[in-house]
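Instructor's aside before we start: the two examples that follow are unrelated to each other. I chose them only because their records fit on one page, so don't look for a connection. First example below.
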Amino acid sequence: MMHSGSFSFFSPHFRPARRFRCHLEYLPMPLNALYSRVLMPALALLIGSVLPTAAHAEWREIPYDDVAKMALGLQAVDTQHIFSLHYVFVPGKGQTTLPADLQLQLKNGSTLTPLPVQPNGEAAIPLRNDLVGHDLQLRINQPKARTALQFQLGARLPPSRNVSYAQLTESLPVMERAIEQMAGMMRFMAPKPRALLIQFAPGPTQTLQLFLPGGGKQTFTSDAHSVLHLPWNRDWLRAATLLSAMPVEMGIELK
Protein backbone atom coordinates (compact mmCIF):
# COMPACT_ATOMS: atom_id res chain seq x y z
CA MET A 1 0.00 0.00 0.00
CA MET A 2 2.85 2.34 0.76
CA HIS A 3 6.20 3.15 -0.76
CA SER A 4 9.39 2.61 1.20
CA GLY A 5 11.14 5.26 3.25
CA SER A 6 11.43 6.50 6.82
CA PHE A 7 11.03 10.26 6.50
CA SER A 8 7.84 11.98 7.59
CA PHE A 9 7.51 15.67 6.93
CA PHE A 10 4.34 15.88 9.03
CA SER A 11 5.25 14.16 12.29
CA PRO A 12 7.03 10.98 13.34
CA HIS A 13 3.77 9.89 14.93
CA PHE A 14 1.41 9.69 11.97
CA ARG A 15 -0.51 6.52 11.28
CA PRO A 16 -3.38 6.32 8.80
CA ALA A 17 -7.04 5.74 9.39
CA ARG A 18 -8.74 3.48 6.83
CA ARG A 19 -9.97 6.37 4.71
CA PHE A 20 -10.77 10.06 4.85
CA ARG A 21 -9.53 10.49 8.46
CA CYS A 22 -6.29 10.84 10.37
CA HIS A 23 -5.92 9.79 13.98
CA LEU A 24 -3.63 12.06 15.94
CA GLU A 25 -2.38 9.66 18.60
CA TYR A 26 -0.20 6.74 17.62
CA LEU A 27 3.38 5.60 18.15
CA PRO A 28 6.16 6.45 15.67
CA MET A 29 6.34 4.30 12.56
CA PRO A 30 8.19 4.47 9.22
CA LEU A 31 6.76 6.33 6.29
CA ASN A 32 5.74 3.18 4.45
CA ALA A 33 3.22 2.61 7.25
CA LEU A 34 2.23 6.24 7.68
CA TYR A 35 -0.20 6.92 4.91
CA SER A 36 -2.61 4.83 2.94
CA ARG A 37 -5.84 6.85 2.74
CA VAL A 38 -6.76 10.36 3.65
CA LEU A 39 -10.38 11.49 3.79
CA MET A 40 -10.91 13.36 3.34
CA PRO A 41 -13.59 14.17 4.56
CA ALA A 42 -11.62 12.57 5.14
CA LEU A 43 -6.96 12.32 4.08
CA ALA A 44 -5.71 11.43 5.17
CA LEU A 45 -2.48 11.80 7.93
CA LEU A 46 -2.09 10.95 11.71
CA ILE A 47 -0.16 12.75 14.44
CA GLY A 48 0.52 13.06 18.06
CA SER A 49 2.49 11.30 20.72
CA VAL A 50 0.58 11.16 23.99
CA LEU A 51 2.49 12.02 27.14
CA PRO A 52 0.87 12.44 30.57
CA THR A 53 1.96 15.47 32.59
CA ALA A 54 3.72 14.98 35.91
CA ALA A 55 1.26 17.14 37.82
CA HIS A 56 -1.95 15.70 36.37
CA ALA A 57 -1.61 12.07 35.36
CA GLU A 58 -5.16 12.00 33.99
CA TRP A 59 -4.27 14.62 31.35
CA ARG A 60 -2.21 13.87 28.29
CA GLU A 61 -0.44 16.24 25.92
CA ILE A 62 0.06 16.44 22.16
CA PRO A 63 2.49 18.99 20.66
CA TYR A 64 0.49 21.74 18.95
CA ASP A 65 3.01 21.93 16.10
CA ASP A 66 2.43 18.27 15.21
CA VAL A 67 -1.32 18.76 15.13
CA ALA A 68 -1.34 22.02 13.18
CA LYS A 69 1.47 21.74 10.62
CA MET A 70 -0.38 19.58 8.07
CA ALA A 71 -3.47 21.79 8.12
CA LEU A 72 -1.45 25.00 7.97
CA GLY A 73 0.65 23.69 5.07
CA LEU A 74 -2.47 22.70 3.19
CA GLN A 75 -4.18 26.03 3.85
CA ALA A 76 -1.17 27.88 2.47
CA VAL A 77 -1.56 26.31 -0.98
CA ASP A 78 -5.35 25.81 -1.02
CA THR A 79 -6.16 29.31 -2.24
CA GLN A 80 -9.48 28.17 -3.76
CA HIS A 81 -10.65 26.55 -0.50
CA ILE A 82 -11.08 23.13 -2.07
CA PHE A 83 -10.51 21.31 1.21
CA SER A 84 -12.49 21.39 4.44
CA LEU A 85 -10.49 20.72 7.61
CA HIS A 86 -11.82 19.52 10.96
CA TYR A 87 -10.47 18.16 14.23
CA VAL A 88 -12.83 15.66 15.80
CA PHE A 89 -12.76 13.47 18.91
CA VAL A 90 -14.00 9.92 18.32
CA PRO A 91 -14.63 7.10 20.81
CA GLY A 92 -11.63 4.90 21.54
CA LYS A 93 -11.37 1.29 20.46
CA GLY A 94 -14.26 -0.67 21.92
CA GLN A 95 -16.07 2.53 22.95
CA THR A 96 -19.34 3.77 21.49
CA THR A 97 -19.70 7.23 23.01
CA LEU A 98 -17.54 10.18 23.94
CA PRO A 99 -16.87 10.97 27.63
CA ALA A 100 -19.42 13.41 29.04
CA ASP A 101 -16.65 15.40 30.77
CA LEU A 102 -14.28 15.57 27.78
CA GLN A 103 -12.09 18.68 27.95
CA LEU A 104 -9.46 20.18 25.67
CA GLN A 105 -6.97 22.90 26.57
CA LEU A 106 -4.20 24.81 24.83
CA LYS A 107 -1.15 25.06 27.10
CA ASN A 108 1.26 27.97 26.60
CA GLY A 109 3.79 27.86 29.41
CA SER A 110 1.73 28.13 32.58
CA THR A 111 -1.32 29.51 30.74
CA LEU A 112 -4.16 27.08 30.02
CA THR A 113 -6.85 28.14 27.54
CA PRO A 114 -9.99 25.97 27.29
CA LEU A 115 -10.94 25.04 23.71
CA PRO A 116 -14.60 24.25 22.93
CA VAL A 117 -15.58 20.68 22.04
CA GLN A 118 -19.02 20.24 20.46
CA PRO A 119 -21.35 17.36 21.42
CA ASN A 120 -20.48 15.66 18.12
CA GLY A 121 -16.78 15.74 19.07
CA GLU A 122 -15.67 18.58 16.80
CA ALA A 123 -12.86 20.51 18.48
CA ALA A 124 -12.15 24.21 17.95
CA ILE A 125 -8.37 24.02 17.58
CA PRO A 126 -6.95 27.34 16.30
CA LEU A 127 -4.84 27.11 13.16
CA ARG A 128 -2.34 29.98 13.32
CA ASN A 129 1.22 30.18 12.07
CA ASP A 130 2.16 32.52 14.92
CA LEU A 131 1.45 29.73 17.42
CA VAL A 132 3.95 27.34 15.80
CA GLY A 133 7.43 27.00 17.25
CA HIS A 134 6.60 28.03 20.83
CA ASP A 135 6.31 24.59 22.44
CA LEU A 136 2.54 24.83 22.86
CA GLN A 137 0.71 21.68 23.91
CA LEU A 138 -2.83 20.44 23.46
CA ARG A 139 -4.07 18.84 26.71
CA ILE A 140 -6.84 16.23 26.84
CA ASN A 141 -8.36 15.04 30.11
CA GLN A 142 -9.06 11.50 28.89
CA PRO A 143 -6.79 8.50 28.17
CA LYS A 144 -6.38 7.66 24.50
CA ALA A 145 -8.10 4.32 25.12
CA ARG A 146 -11.23 6.35 25.88
CA THR A 147 -11.13 8.84 23.03
CA ALA A 148 -8.87 9.71 20.09
CA LEU A 149 -8.39 12.95 18.20
CA GLN A 150 -8.74 12.84 14.41
CA PHE A 151 -7.82 15.27 11.66
CA GLN A 152 -10.56 15.00 9.04
CA LEU A 153 -9.98 16.29 5.55
CA GLY A 154 -12.63 16.52 2.86
CA ALA A 155 -12.47 17.62 -0.77
CA ARG A 156 -15.06 19.84 -2.44
CA LEU A 157 -17.85 17.91 -4.15
CA PRO A 158 -18.53 18.41 -7.88
CA PRO A 159 -21.46 20.66 -8.85
CA SER A 160 -23.05 17.95 -10.99
CA ARG A 161 -22.64 14.35 -12.16
CA ASN A 162 -21.16 15.43 -15.50
CA VAL A 163 -17.89 17.35 -15.01
CA SER A 164 -14.40 17.31 -16.47
CA TYR A 165 -11.79 15.01 -14.99
CA ALA A 166 -9.75 18.12 -14.14
CA GLN A 167 -12.58 19.62 -12.09
CA LEU A 168 -13.44 16.35 -10.36
CA THR A 169 -9.81 15.80 -9.30
CA GLU A 170 -9.02 19.44 -8.48
CA SER A 171 -7.97 18.48 -4.95
CA LEU A 172 -5.12 16.21 -6.08
CA PRO A 173 -2.70 18.82 -7.50
CA VAL A 174 -3.34 20.97 -4.43
CA MET A 175 -2.36 18.07 -2.19
CA GLU A 176 0.73 17.50 -4.36
CA ARG A 177 1.81 21.12 -3.85
CA ALA A 178 1.20 20.92 -0.10
CA ILE A 179 3.28 17.75 0.21
CA GLU A 180 6.13 19.16 -1.89
CA GLN A 181 6.17 22.38 0.12
CA MET A 182 6.26 20.62 3.49
CA ALA A 183 8.69 17.90 2.41
CA GLY A 184 11.23 20.34 0.95
CA MET A 185 14.37 18.61 -0.25
CA MET A 186 13.02 15.26 0.97
CA ARG A 187 9.96 15.37 -1.28
CA PHE A 188 11.27 12.44 -3.34
CA MET A 189 10.61 10.24 -0.27
CA ALA A 190 7.21 11.73 0.53
CA PRO A 191 3.86 10.12 -0.28
CA LYS A 192 2.08 11.17 -3.45
CA PRO A 193 -1.60 11.23 -4.44
CA ARG A 194 -2.56 8.00 -6.17
CA ALA A 195 -6.33 8.21 -6.53
CA LEU A 196 -9.43 10.19 -5.75
CA LEU A 197 -11.70 8.34 -3.32
CA ILE A 198 -15.35 8.98 -4.14
CA GLN A 199 -17.76 7.95 -1.40
CA PHE A 200 -21.37 7.28 -2.39
CA ALA A 201 -24.36 6.72 -0.16
CA PRO A 202 -24.79 3.03 0.79
CA GLY A 203 -26.77 1.14 -1.80
CA PRO A 204 -26.28 -0.26 -5.29
CA THR A 205 -22.94 -0.24 -7.10
CA GLN A 206 -22.13 3.15 -8.61
CA THR A 207 -20.02 3.91 -11.66
CA LEU A 208 -17.89 6.62 -13.21
CA GLN A 209 -17.41 6.77 -16.95
CA LEU A 210 -14.26 8.46 -18.24
CA PHE A 211 -14.43 9.82 -21.80
CA LEU A 212 -10.98 10.44 -23.28
CA PRO A 213 -10.39 13.17 -25.90
CA GLY A 214 -9.32 10.60 -28.50
CA GLY A 215 -12.59 8.71 -28.22
CA GLY A 216 -11.65 6.02 -25.70
CA LYS A 217 -13.79 5.27 -22.64
CA GLN A 218 -13.09 3.65 -19.28
CA THR A 219 -15.55 2.67 -16.55
CA PHE A 220 -14.79 2.51 -12.83
CA THR A 221 -17.10 0.97 -10.21
CA SER A 222 -17.55 1.42 -6.46
CA ASP A 223 -16.48 -1.30 -4.01
CA ALA A 224 -18.37 -3.07 -1.22
CA HIS A 225 -18.03 0.07 0.94
CA SER A 226 -19.59 2.28 -1.78
CA VAL A 227 -16.19 3.88 -2.46
CA LEU A 228 -14.94 4.37 -6.01
CA HIS A 229 -11.19 4.67 -6.62
CA LEU A 230 -10.43 6.99 -9.54
CA PRO A 231 -6.71 6.89 -10.46
CA TRP A 232 -4.80 10.18 -10.64
CA ASN A 233 -3.43 10.61 -14.16
CA ARG A 234 -2.39 13.97 -15.59
CA ASP A 235 -2.83 12.57 -19.09
CA TRP A 236 -6.58 12.54 -18.44
CA LEU A 237 -6.94 16.23 -17.56
CA ARG A 238 -8.78 16.93 -20.83
CA ALA A 239 -11.17 14.01 -20.36
CA ALA A 240 -14.83 14.23 -19.33
CA THR A 241 -16.50 12.18 -16.61
CA LEU A 242 -20.03 11.03 -15.86
CA LEU A 243 -21.03 9.82 -12.39
CA SER A 244 -24.02 7.52 -11.96
CA ALA A 245 -24.91 9.36 -8.72
CA MET A 246 -23.74 12.34 -6.72
CA PRO A 247 -21.07 11.50 -4.11
CA VAL A 248 -21.50 12.28 -0.44
CA GLU A 249 -17.77 12.60 0.35
CA MET A 250 -14.48 12.71 -1.48
CA GLY A 251 -10.95 12.10 -0.25
CA ILE A 252 -7.46 11.22 -1.44
CA GLU A 253 -5.54 7.96 -1.48
CA LEU A 254 -1.78 8.36 -1.11
CA LYS A 255 0.99 6.01 -2.19
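Example two begins here.
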Amino acid sequence: MPAWPPLEAVLDVGQSAKRCPGLSEHDGSIWRSFVAANPRHFQQAWFYVPVTTGPQDLSQYCPQTLAEQMWPSYAYRPDVVATRHGTIWVIELKPHATHHALGQALYYAHQFNVMYNPAIPAIPAIIARTYALDLVAIANRYDCSCLTCATLQDAPGPTIPVPAGS
Protein backbone atom coordinates (compact mmCIF):
# COMPACT_ATOMS: atom_id res chain seq x y z
CA MET A 1 0.00 0.00 0.00
CA PRO A 2 1.51 3.40 -0.95
CA ALA A 3 2.33 5.88 1.80
CA TRP A 4 0.23 8.99 2.22
CA PRO A 5 0.94 11.83 1.81
CA PRO A 6 3.28 11.78 -1.18
CA LEU A 7 5.38 14.64 0.19
CA GLU A 8 7.05 15.51 -3.09
CA ALA A 9 3.69 16.63 -4.54
CA VAL A 10 2.37 18.78 -1.68
CA LEU A 11 1.66 22.46 -2.16
CA ASP A 12 0.24 24.85 0.33
CA VAL A 13 -3.04 26.24 -0.92
CA GLY A 14 -1.48 29.61 -1.79
CA GLN A 15 1.07 27.89 -4.05
CA SER A 16 -1.62 25.66 -5.54
CA ALA A 17 -3.57 28.71 -6.72
CA LYS A 18 -0.56 29.73 -8.84
CA ARG A 19 0.22 26.39 -10.46
CA CYS A 20 -2.04 23.39 -10.76
CA PRO A 21 0.02 20.50 -12.16
CA GLY A 22 -2.04 18.04 -14.18
CA LEU A 23 -5.23 20.14 -14.29
CA SER A 24 -6.91 21.27 -17.48
CA GLU A 25 -7.23 25.01 -18.08
CA HIS A 26 -10.92 24.92 -17.06
CA ASP A 27 -10.30 22.91 -13.88
CA GLY A 28 -7.33 25.10 -12.94
CA SER A 29 -9.52 28.18 -13.34
CA ILE A 30 -12.15 26.73 -10.99
CA TRP A 31 -9.53 25.79 -8.36
CA ARG A 32 -7.92 29.25 -8.54
CA SER A 33 -11.35 30.94 -8.22
CA PHE A 34 -12.24 28.82 -5.19
CA VAL A 35 -8.89 29.46 -3.46
CA ALA A 36 -9.08 33.20 -4.19
CA ALA A 37 -12.54 33.38 -2.60
CA ASN A 38 -11.74 30.95 0.25
CA PRO A 39 -7.97 31.12 0.90
CA ARG A 40 -8.12 29.37 4.29
CA HIS A 41 -10.64 26.62 3.55
CA PHE A 42 -7.98 24.01 2.71
CA GLN A 43 -4.42 23.93 4.06
CA GLN A 44 -2.56 21.72 1.54
CA ALA A 45 -3.26 20.40 -1.94
CA TRP A 46 -1.97 17.57 -4.11
CA PHE A 47 -2.55 17.21 -7.84
CA TYR A 48 -2.25 14.22 -10.15
CA VAL A 49 -2.63 11.66 -7.32
CA PRO A 50 -3.28 8.14 -8.67
CA VAL A 51 -6.10 6.19 -7.03
CA THR A 52 -5.57 2.91 -8.89
CA THR A 53 -2.91 0.43 -7.90
CA GLY A 54 -0.39 0.69 -10.74
CA PRO A 55 1.18 -0.87 -13.82
CA GLN A 56 0.90 -4.34 -12.29
CA ASP A 57 -2.84 -4.12 -13.09
CA LEU A 58 -2.06 -3.55 -16.77
CA SER A 59 0.63 -6.24 -16.91
CA GLN A 60 -2.15 -8.83 -16.77
CA TYR A 61 -3.10 -7.71 -20.27
CA CYS A 62 0.19 -6.66 -21.89
CA PRO A 63 3.97 -6.94 -21.34
CA GLN A 64 5.29 -5.23 -18.17
CA THR A 65 7.36 -2.66 -20.11
CA LEU A 66 4.31 -1.59 -22.12
CA ALA A 67 2.23 -1.47 -18.92
CA GLU A 68 4.77 0.89 -17.33
CA GLN A 69 4.68 3.16 -20.39
CA MET A 70 0.86 3.20 -20.46
CA TRP A 71 0.40 3.68 -16.70
CA PRO A 72 0.42 7.53 -16.63
CA SER A 73 -2.53 7.68 -19.03
CA TYR A 74 -4.35 4.70 -17.48
CA ALA A 75 -4.36 5.78 -13.82
CA TYR A 76 -7.54 7.29 -12.43
CA ARG A 77 -6.78 10.57 -10.71
CA PRO A 78 -9.04 13.03 -8.87
CA ASP A 79 -8.49 16.67 -9.76
CA VAL A 80 -7.34 17.69 -6.26
CA VAL A 81 -6.67 15.98 -2.94
CA ALA A 82 -6.64 18.57 -0.15
CA THR A 83 -6.52 18.72 3.63
CA ARG A 84 -8.82 20.64 5.95
CA HIS A 85 -8.29 20.44 9.74
CA GLY A 86 -6.82 16.94 9.56
CA THR A 87 -9.35 15.52 7.10
CA ILE A 88 -8.57 14.59 3.52
CA TRP A 89 -10.90 15.77 0.76
CA VAL A 90 -10.92 14.14 -2.68
CA ILE A 91 -12.19 16.85 -5.02
CA GLU A 92 -13.65 16.87 -8.52
CA LEU A 93 -13.68 20.26 -10.29
CA LYS A 94 -16.34 21.12 -12.87
CA PRO A 95 -17.65 24.29 -14.52
CA HIS A 96 -21.18 22.79 -14.29
CA ALA A 97 -21.52 19.72 -12.07
CA THR A 98 -23.83 16.90 -13.17
CA HIS A 99 -24.25 13.27 -12.15
CA HIS A 100 -20.89 12.54 -13.82
CA ALA A 101 -19.08 14.75 -11.27
CA LEU A 102 -20.91 13.05 -8.40
CA GLY A 103 -19.94 9.62 -9.69
CA GLN A 104 -16.32 10.67 -10.11
CA ALA A 105 -16.12 12.21 -6.63
CA LEU A 106 -17.64 9.14 -4.96
CA TYR A 107 -15.52 6.70 -6.97
CA TYR A 108 -12.24 8.57 -6.49
CA ALA A 109 -12.81 9.00 -2.74
CA HIS A 110 -13.61 5.29 -2.39
CA GLN A 111 -10.54 4.28 -4.38
CA PHE A 112 -8.38 6.74 -2.41
CA ASN A 113 -9.56 5.18 0.86
CA VAL A 114 -8.85 1.66 -0.43
CA MET A 115 -5.44 2.55 -1.81
CA TYR A 116 -4.07 4.78 0.97
CA ASN A 117 -6.13 3.59 3.97
CA PRO A 118 -6.12 6.98 5.77
CA ALA A 119 -6.87 7.03 9.51
CA ILE A 120 -10.00 9.08 8.80
CA PRO A 121 -11.76 8.22 5.51
CA ALA A 122 -11.40 10.84 2.79
CA ILE A 123 -14.41 13.04 2.05
CA PRO A 124 -15.71 13.17 -1.53
CA ALA A 125 -16.32 16.71 -2.76
CA ILE A 126 -17.21 18.69 -5.86
CA ILE A 127 -16.27 22.31 -6.49
CA ALA A 128 -18.25 23.84 -9.35
CA ARG A 129 -19.48 27.18 -10.60
CA THR A 130 -23.01 25.76 -11.02
CA TYR A 131 -24.86 22.53 -10.24
CA ALA A 132 -27.48 20.52 -12.12
CA LEU A 133 -30.97 20.58 -10.66
CA ASP A 134 -31.25 18.30 -7.59
CA LEU A 135 -27.58 17.27 -7.71
CA VAL A 136 -26.74 18.86 -4.34
CA ALA A 137 -29.64 17.06 -2.64
CA ILE A 138 -28.51 13.74 -4.12
CA ALA A 139 -24.88 14.41 -3.21
CA ASN A 140 -25.94 15.11 0.38
CA ARG A 141 -27.51 11.64 0.57
CA TYR A 142 -24.09 10.16 -0.23
CA ASP A 143 -22.08 12.51 2.06
CA CYS A 144 -20.47 14.28 -0.89
CA SER A 145 -19.82 17.97 -0.21
CA CYS A 146 -20.73 20.47 -2.93
CA LEU A 147 -18.86 23.78 -2.84
CA THR A 148 -19.09 26.80 -5.11
CA CYS A 149 -16.45 29.24 -6.31
CA ALA A 150 -18.13 31.99 -4.24
CA THR A 151 -16.92 32.83 -0.78
CA LEU A 152 -18.44 30.27 1.55
CA GLN A 153 -19.96 33.00 3.73
CA ASP A 154 -21.77 34.49 0.70
CA ALA A 155 -22.94 31.25 -0.91
CA PRO A 156 -26.46 30.04 -0.17
CA GLY A 157 -26.52 27.39 2.59
CA PRO A 158 -27.96 24.42 0.69
CA THR A 159 -25.21 24.50 -1.93
CA ILE A 160 -22.33 24.08 0.50
CA PRO A 161 -22.89 21.12 2.80
CA VAL A 162 -19.73 20.49 4.79
CA PRO A 163 -19.51 17.35 6.94
CA ALA A 164 -19.62 17.94 10.70
CA GLY A 165 -16.19 18.42 12.23
CA SER A 166 -14.56 19.47 8.94
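The CA atoms of residues 61 and 98 lie 33 Å apart.
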